[in-house]
């Protein structure tokens, strides 16, 4: 497992779901964690529960100035930034291409694609200066396959997957480890929104088909260690039985 004692980890979208589970998992592995999301009270509660090794930084990933300020806050609190988890994401708008609201479509790109760029752009110089770090981005099967009503989600996740490859290409020589994690379907608020939409086969899945958020959280911690180095520049699928076996997930 990754050696995370004393390391500093910044997690976007940490107010609930996969991001909140990741914050708890990284803290349990000995890391100091900075929790980012727009919902200040929620991240403050989780940071308070974790204790003195956690800070809450209200942040809209769609704004570069917010992400840059969050990196500064992490450096001020912990003196370092070793891992960035680009996890924040939105599924809306769930609408056909021909009817989609252009502003809502644009917002999804701002969060899911530009938010990942903003994180990489803010963290890469700091990590390069320090000799390296890990930039993990939560991807999706939707990055590689279109689904009805999800054009904004699929297009933004496809762009984010390319950002992981770009980050590896440009950052590897500075010790930056860039990887994506495609978790499969996870029992979070996002799946509740998908179920409520009734659009495309994912909404028809049973709740018991989804994995718990603790599984991708465990995978993200593992991805910081040398065992995951073979995936640099690529995506790890949590549907892969070999990966599940390595992580001890049934
Ligand atoms: N659940 C699944 O089945 C599934 C499958 C594949 C991939 N994923 C990906 O996993 C990631 C986490 O999703 P989840 O399932 O945990 O969903 P979730 O429960 O809906 O959580 C989404 C998180 O993103 C944050 N967020 C949204 N917009 C933001 C913004 N502009 N700035 C900062 N934070 C923002 C939310 O916090 P605030 O609202 O407080 O800002 C929340 O913490 C996403 O990237 C998603 O695409 C999920």
UniProtKB/TrEMBL annotation:
It comes from the Bacteria. GO terms for molecular function: oxidoreductase activity. InterPro entries: NAD(P)-bd_dom_sf, SDR_fam. Keywords: Oxidoreductase. It holds the Pfam family adh_short. Belongs to the short-chain dehydrogenases/reductases (SDR) family. This is SDR family NAD(P)-dependent oxidoreductase.
